[in-house]
Amino acid sequence: MTTRSEIRAQREAAEQASTPPVSDPEPAAEKSNHFFNLWGTIFLILFILSAILNATILNPKFVLHEVRNSVVETTITDQVNGALERYGVPTSVLTDKDTDRLLNQAVNQVYAGKNIHLDLSTVTQRAGAAADSQLAQYGLAGVGSAASSALSQNINSVVNGQLNTPAVARLANGIHLAKVAANMIFTVTGIGLMVLAVLAVLGRHFAQSFSRMGIWTVIIDGALCGAIGKLAPQLAADQPDYTAFVAQLSTDFMRTALTMIGMVLVVTIILLIWRIFGRRLLSRR
């Protein structure tokens, strides 16, 4: 005769057999997190890299700072002085303020993807005024100013013709395309990171995901920027006149890049600390 305990055991066994097994959601969730972290890492690497480029070699203010007191400034000054001497204008009329203004014009025009068009009218007008002051005693006041207005266009044409070489045109075009690409990457990846950040907060894995993204970003962007900093002076080795300028540019590029990557590292460390101690605080509750 079957006892009640045996009947109860048979009933429980039947219920367990009829209940479908529940699949473990952890593998699917883990796979989803891997996909999330992969795209997040790609976005963050490109975002930081484009930000570094926009702050350094694609930034006309950064390059203008590097150009001052370099061989590039000397080249432009020599071109201008040569044109002035050709037309009998003393080079002493070209002041440091004029040189800074001409450098500003040249760099901003190149970074706008345009040909260099320097305006030397203020220099020739100053030379004409100086000539007028000397000719006034002979009753020839105004001759210098009239001559300077006629010379200004010729001098501008000579200087700009010497500066607008095919290499400068290729450089201006390349910089313009690089700026467009960097700005597009910066915008798209920035929006993508904002979306991922919201999803990570809602999914309660923000610190876990973004700390991993930060680690890979520091490693990969650091390696890329280090390679750029070391290779750039070697690429300019066949042009000895520009070796010192390129080395200086590479040094300042690396300084800015390491500063920005260091900020990412600090945020990553904070997220890692939050992962460790935040989890413990939550477990105690």
Layout of strands and helices, then pairs:
Elements: H1 4-18, H2 26-55, H3 60-67, H4 71-86, H5 96-111, H6 121-135, H7 143-163, H8 166-202, H9 206-235, H10 243-284
Describe this structure in words.
This protein is mostly helical. It is elongated. The protein has helices at 4-18, 26-55, 60-67, 71-86, 96-111, 121-135, 143-163, 166-202, 206-235, 243-284. Keywords: Membrane, Transmembrane, Transmembrane helix. Residues 1-14 have a biased composition (Basic and acidic residues). Residues 1-28 are annotated as: Disordered. The chain crosses the membrane at residues 36-58, 180-202, 214-233, 253-277.
Quaternary structure state of the chains depicted: single chain
Average predicted local confidence, pLDDT: 79
What fraction of the residues are assigned to beta strands by DSSP?
Answer: under 5%
Annotation field: number of helices = 10
- Give a quick account of the main beta sheet: strands, pairing sense, barrel closure: none
In terms of per-residue confidence, which ranges show pLDDT below 50 for 5 or more consecutive residues?
Answer: 134-146
Keywords: Membrane, Transmembrane, Transmembrane helix
Region (Disordered): 1-28
Biased composition (Basic and acidic residues): 1-14
Transmembrane segments: 36-58, 180-202, 214-233, 253-277
